[in-house]
Amino acid sequence: MITYLKQVIIKELIYYLDRSKIEDMLNTCELAVNGTLMRGLELNDNLQQVGAVFIQETLTAPVYRLWSIGDRHPAMMRVSEGGKSIAIEIWSLPLVGLVQILQQEPAGLCIGKIKLVDDRELLGVLGESFLCEGKQEITNFGGWRNYLKSSEKSQSNLL
């Protein structure tokens, strides 16, 4: 009798866990961010407020270019030539939070598919082409954080 009860409890637990995972998968998504939404930066609180959870740091496939938009935030675009890998963070967030995040992003940034260095594709923040026109390209820094660090060094050298 005890063995039978254990089996029933284990089956129910497995059913509940699998159902919970399925519900999570249907109600959440992963989002790749490359600028001010990253941990410790200006707009990271926007992710925190929608209940996002940091997953990992990684790189895009080497098919992106990055621009500084007035040193306020970056804009990343996929290109057919001259692209490099860009440092990004992956976050898991509720689907309802994705809309809120997009509404809070600066004008000209949008959500699109981003190809990662491991060939996965995720939703992520991209810049529209008009936003990058005439702006400083910062692709060679490999990411927004590296660009910010370089800018800080340049400013401290001027003092």
Q: Helical amount among residues, as a percent range?
A: 25-40%
Strand content: 25-35%
Please indicate the count of domains: 1
Question: What is the number of E strands?
Answer: 8
Under CATH, the topology can be stated as Hypothetical upf0131 protein ytfp
Distance between the termini: 79 Å
Radius of gyration: 20 Å
Separate helix tally: 5
Q: Tell me the strand order in the biggest sheet.
A: 2-5-1-7-6
| Mean pLDDT reading | 87
CATH class: Alpha Beta
Largest sheet report: 5 strands, mixed
The named CATH superfamily: Gamma-glutamyl cyclotransferase-like
At CATH's second level, what is the architecture?
Answer: Roll
- Helix and strand content put the structural class at alpha+beta
Order of helices and strands: HEHEEEEHEEHEH
Structural shape: elongated
Residue ranges: pLDDT <50 for 5 or more in a row? Answer: none
